[in-house]
Amino acid sequence: MALSHRRRWGLTPQDLDFANQEREIEIVPMVRLPLTSSNDGPLAPQFGPFNPPQKAKVPLWFALQMKKKGKCRIVVPGWLSVASLEETLREETSSDDFSPLPRDYVELSNTLLHLASDDFPLHSSSDKVKILLKDIREARQAKIRVGAGALNPVHLAMPHLSSMEILELRPTFSTAFQRLRELNPEAERHEAIAGMWLEKEGEARRRAELGEFERGDAQEGMEEEY
Amino acid sequence: MNKSFFDDDDEDDTLGSPGRSSLQADFNSNRAASPRAYGAGPSKSARASSTTGGRQSSVTGAQANSSVRAYESTRGGSPTLEDILGEGSSHDGERNVQKLIRAWNNEMGAPELLKYPKRLVERLVKDLVHRKALVKEANQMVGEDEALYLQASLVATECMRTAHVLKSYQRCRIYKIEQFADFYLDQEDREDRLSPDELTHAEGYSEIRKRYMNDSGRDAFPSSLLNKDMPVLEPDLSQAVFVHVLRECGPVLLPDGELIPLAQGSQHMLRYSTIRSCLERGDVELM
């Protein structure tokens, strides 16, 4: 088949890692390099020029390629320092909300710890960072398990969840969503409203603003955020 | 010539040898006015040309300035202004690969086939062929110039990434086409949604499938059943999708009759039908 069965549920973690390597990161180049154009030609954003020891911003894959050849040092982002991670962990364990880490924090920290562990500053060594990240991850996973209780067949907001965490809960949540949708006593009404929204967006919005779709008490508790 | 890691074996188109100077100019593209560069610092263009000048005597001032011409000439044919500016004129700091990655992620997330970004894919494929030839060219001169070697390997990495995304994207689309081939062929917007090649594939697939169904038993059905049309499978638009809002967009109507605004940067799980129009406008991306 055209698509491997592992991808039927969407992207794999490797795919996500690959896609997120387009994110920008700061490096300190060790070699002089003139401007390098990207695949889109000279009018598109370009990489460089590098004049050590001046910092430069490049995509992550670019930085990793240079790093493997020993031509640069990657500047570890501030939120990945011990002090900042301790603060995040405190926030994570004391509040019910998710702390605002970057969306790709799992992949990025994993990549940097594997391929650039010598670039971590002395005062926040990679070992300490690893332990802290593990604690943060466990705290967040516990919250996700609690949050599964808020599942409903309509809408669930997931603020500050990282893309890897969403990937993780995706198969479970979308199957549950599907089942809840089928079991929902109001399924028909929901289908009708969704159908109207698809066909005649303007009219559906007008009618919603007039409150024609309101049914009152039955909807309470539908919109729980977690 | 010994093969190195970025030597591609599936690529054997022979472009006219652009010669060393144009090659260097193309990788470097150290033109006087470079609209956007990753790299920081003022007066970068001046520095760029001076470093090149100091390091590489073969790139003389005149040749360096002619990098645009070199770019054009190596592409073959005579590109129009539109061709050169193309998508480049509407650059919002995003490279085409990033746009394609987004299209790929959306395609993986959405239950139905999305519109085919024809221009984007065509442009990427064209650029890819061109860049691969350049890398090959540079590979012939390995050992002469370390900076050129490093640049060539970086460009090769980008090429491999682009090729990988293109491949994954197309595979995903083929899978979806085969899932609901008859449904997409019945749609009015099929020319828009499918590329010409995909359309041919969908037609062929649907044909083979029908023949198989007939041969493997349908022809033994009573004629009253045979006269009815075969049921057409449709994608389930109510499937759950995970969205990340890129731009704040107007309130969307949830199936229970509530209007909610989608704030920039927020993430939601909801039915695909709810955000279908936002996705078409590019206000949200799927995860």
UniProtKB/TrEMBL annotation, chain A:
GO BP terms in the entry: DNA replication; double-strand break repair via break-induced replication
Record's keyword annotation contains Nucleus: yes
Keyword Membrane among record annotations: no
Domain DNA replication complex GINS protein PSF2 N-terminal: from-to ranges: 12-75
Highest taxon of source: Eukaryota
Subcellular location field: Nucleus
Key words, A-Z: DNA replication, Nucleus
GO CC terms in record: GINS complex
SUPFAM superfamilies per the UniProt record, alphabetical: GINS helical bundle-like, PriA/YqbF domain
CDD domains, alphabetized: GINS_A_psf2, GINS_B_Psf2
Ranges of residues in domain GINS subunit: 79-175
One family name in Pfam for this protein: PSF2_N
Family membership: Belongs to the GINS2/PSF2 family.
Record's protein name: DNA replication complex GINS protein PSF2
Lineage: Eukaryota, Fungi, Dikarya, Basidiomycota, Pucciniomycotina
Automatic annotation (TrEMBL), chain B:
Renumbered residue ranges of the record's region Disordered: 1-92
Composition bias type Polar residues, residue spans: 19-32, 46-68
Segments forming domain GINS subunit: 146-216
Main location per the UniProt record: nucleus
Domain of life: Eukaryota
Keyword field: DNA replication, Nucleus
Keyword Nucleus: yes
Gene Ontology BP annotations: DNA-templated DNA replication; double-strand break repair via break-induced replication
Compartments reported by the entry: Nucleus
Coiled-coil region(s): none
Classification via InterPro entries: GINS_A, GINS_bundle-like_dom_sf, GINS_Sld5, SLD5_C, Sld5_GINS_A
Pfam families linked to this entry: Sld5, SLD5_C
Keyword Zinc: no
Gene3D superfamilies recorded: 1.20.58.1030, 3.40.5.60
Gene Ontology CC: GINS complex
Record domain DNA replication complex GINS protein SLD5 C-terminal: where: 235-287
Family: Belongs to the GINS4/SLD5 family.
Protein known as: DNA replication complex GINS protein SLD5
Lineage: Eukaryota, Fungi, Dikarya, Basidiomycota, Pucciniomycotina
